[in-house]
Amino acid sequence: QVQLVESGGGLVQAGGSLRLSCAASGRSFTGYPMGWFRQASGKEREFVAAITWRGLSSYYADSVKGRFTISRDNDKITVYLQMNSLKPEDTAVYYCAASTGAYSGPYSLTRAPTYAYWGQGTQVTVSS
Questions:
Q1: How far apart are CA 108 and CA 105, in angstroms?
Q2: Dist CA 20 CA 6 (whole Å)
Q3: Nearest to 87 by CA among 66, 71, 70, 58
């Protein structure tokens, strides 16, 4: 059974930092991109960041560029999201996602249908 388990969410003041982790199990994700999405209350799920298999390429939503960093440890099958300079508008449930298709360009990584597996989400709340 494939599982993606996120951790690291919580409550933080504006300007603070959090590091999210997503541990994958149940199958190999060798060669496949992984990403983070988020969904704020009453809004649609949106792309946050994605990273290719070897970590040579990463992509970010404009809203988080320069503040968030995605990384991965393939030995641990874990992807991370370091979030700095957090803003109240970053408040959302953050979801980890794993693709099972070959990398087909940066645009594909920003789209939810690219990803076959999803975690249960972790809440991030940024107070002003």
A1: 6
A2: 7
A3: 66
